[in-house]
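Why do we care about 3D structure at all? Because function follows from shape, and shape follows, mostly, from sequence. That is the central idea of this module. The next example makes it concrete: a single protein chain, its amino acid sequence, and then its structure expressed as tokens.
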Amino acid sequence: MPQRHLTANDTPGRHAPSWYAETAGPCPEHAQLQGETRADVCIVGGGYAGLSAALHLADAGYDVVLVEANRLGWGASGRNGGQLGLGPRADIRAYEDAVGRADARKVWDLALAANRLVRDLVHRFSMDVDLANGGLEVAWRKRDAEHIAALDEHLRRHYGFQGMATLTRSQVEGMLATRRYHGGGYWQQAGHLHPLRFALGLAQAAADAGARLRERSRAVRVRHDRVDTVEGSVRARHVLIAANGYLDGLVSAVAARSMPINNFIIATQPLGRERAERLIAGSFAVHDTKFVVDYFRLTRDHRLLWGGGESYGARFPSDIAGLVRGKMLRVFPQLADVAITHAWGGTLAITRSRFPAFQRLEGGMLAVSGWSGSGVHMATFAGKLAAEAIMGRAERFDTLAAMPAPPFPGGAWLRAPLLAAAMTWYSLRDRL
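And the structure:
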């Protein structure tokens, strides 16, 4: 039976108690869907993908209704690590193995375009999202440093990409106040932002373009030409499913390929400028190479945001702060005296291959999901590609739809326990 992530941990209709929600500023409310209405397009899900699609479609003159079960940006889009990536979530060499270098090059170019799209939208709509540049990938093991260096060389040789720089262990130690890492790679065009403000910025832009955004409107039944919610329904020529980790089994063909997992974040008390800059010598974001990734960055008010740890059932652990704080202290033991002011969790979706799932479903419905931790840029871009496909320009959507995203084994009843067993096994390797 599908697990109910929509209702397991959070207060319905309210954003998670995160540092993001506390600092987001105004969160305009949108009406609930009541009764029956018609539209050119109905979008299910008010995160980055759905909001981006709504913006691009409304901007092109389409009549769009978007239904969101809670608040816009309520899911992973409003509570993630805020890291703006560069490239696809999976190593580009995995794409080469799956589909050949020519098609992998198309994926690489699209992933770079995804990063640019986020930046273009932030500037076009003057979004106040604390956008900062630079991303540091740090090697948890010595062999991970060798892997990063090999990727850097591969990208330079075969893709002409020079936006990554391999770093030695001593260079990383000059950037971070820890000796835990064995080297790394610096991605110049990566970065980080305030994820909830970005979602709200997309929502405002979509609403200004004419999209009808409906909050507290949980979809309970979806067909190719109709979406029913608890209180209303939308008849539409096109339907797009963009619900990701909070899909809760609504569409079985999507649920089979994108599995929900939970991830957790803490925010420290403000450290003060001097102490913060001793900890991380720059405004860049950081993530490591573990299977269960740790990621961290500084905020504008000099807090450390640290994300890490996963769970695979619907419920969050009772002590999120304790779980994540231990991971932070393993790298920065000098923060043992620092208080944790915020701790929260969220649910994202992964695929078996870590390739995103772009799907054409029965009756012409489209679905996008499975960002596997790359949602800031890839989900935003997916919304644009889905909009293009609805407008009859499907080449870029179909390029990503051709990437293998096989279903998880076990069917609706066994997918979750099998995933939990597999993820627990792989996460044990991080301790070796």
